[in-house]
Amino acid sequence: MKRLLGLALMVGMIFAVAGNPVTAQQQPLIGVSIFDYSNTFMGFVRHGIENAAKGKANLIIVDAQNNQATQNDQIDTMIARGVKVLAINPVNQQAAATMIAKARAANIPIIFFNRNPSTTDMLSYDKTWYVGIDPQNGGKVQAQMIADAFKAHPEYYKRHDGVIHYVLLKGTIGHPDAEARTATVTQRMAELGLKTDQLELQSADFDTVKAKDVTDAWIAKYGDKIDLIISNNDAMALGAIESLKAAGYTSGSKFTPVIGMNAIPQVLDYIQSGQMLGSVMQSPWDQAQAVVALSLNAAAGRDPLAGTTYRLDASKAVRLADTVITRVNLSVARSAYVNCQ
Question: What span, in angstroms and rounded, lies between the C-alpha atoms of 37 and 46?
């Protein structure tokens, strides 16, 4: 397996160099590992990194296939190939210590993105940084959107009791983002004074097909008595909408709103039509640009923030802004994906 992985990385490196034959030797080699190419949002971030790095860096960019052992092997191989910096979207943040140890042994900077390791891990090596949103904030923003929507549309209360009877599609159990988004959306709804009744909470592993199956079961159990479906990400929201459409719950008195996270292009038409309340966007292009900017600086031995407007928090993280996406500002979401195709 390692032999095949090494060959794949060599081919990727040759392709990257060939893409810039004149200046390639002057450009730093950056090793990028994405936790899973099949993840919709990370696919956009990956293309954004490729576009942001054009003419500035050569990339070895690989798919960890949602396997931490594979990602660890990829890091070993990229270090052996002479990368100047590692940019890692970790399969498992809890394995960050192992990845950091590999980077430290080779005296190579490592930049994590989208999935945030613990503060302890981040502070364990002086050449470690992170790019991404605050995982605590997304759920809070969702809660405010829910409060605004139910105030504007009292007809969403199907039982006419002023209580939001909701179900929640959770990402992978134990995943820090899933745990944070779930905890903060429920806590913030209470803080906003909303009366709620959580009918069900179930993990669908951030997956569209699994989310559809879960929602099918909920509809079979509760019928049209579900006021709202909250989803930890848009991939699961899409599965929920497929289920609602099949059951006839996307219009009329049975209409059941859905709220998601990431504002991926596939959900924007549903937001436009009103089948989704909205989503919370972490711009893939902003994330890609920040990863490349920090990587270029780190590869050159400069302060990672040199020449940028970014700031580091106490955990050495560049925190990017969340953006509320509803039907009134869909153009903002669409523009965020233009350079990530």
Answer: 8
Owning domain of residue 94: 2-133+283-321
Per-residue pLDDT of the chain (341 residues; tens, 9 = 90+): 444 444 444 444 434 443 444 455 689 999 999 999 998 899 999 999 999 999 999 999 999 999 999 999 999 999 999 999 999 999 999 999 999 999 999 999 999 999 999 999 999 999 999 999 988 899 999 999 999 999 999 999 999 999 999 999 999 998 888 999 999 999 999 999 999 999 999 999 999 999 999 999 999 999 999 999 999 999 999 999 999 999 999 988 899 999 999 999 999 999 999 889 999 998 999 999 999 999 999 999 999 999 999 999 999 999 999 999 999 999 999 999 999 99
- Indicate left, alpha or beta for 9 from its phi (over 0: left) and psi (-120 to 50: alpha): alpha
**Euclidean distance between CA atoms 235 and 92, whole angstroms:** 19
Alpha carbon distance 68, 99 (integer Å): 10
Of 322, 222, 239, 224, the residue nearest 276 (C-alpha):
239
Amino acid identity for residue 325 in this structure:
I
CA–CA gap between residue 109 and residue 103 (Å, rounded):
6
Total structural domains within the chain = 2
In-domain check, residue 335: no
The total of other beta-carbon atoms located within 10 Å of residue 136's CB is 15
Give 241's DSSP letter. H
Separation CA 234–CA 134 (nearest Å)? 18
Q: Which amino acid is at 260?
A: G
Q: What is the CATH number of the domain that holds 68?
A: 3.40.50.2300
Q: Are 199 and 226 in contact (CB under 8 A)?
A: yes
Give the chain's end-to-end CA distance (angstroms, integer). 30
| Residue 190 tokens, joined | 């209470």
The DSSP string of 223-238 is TT---EEEESSHHHHH
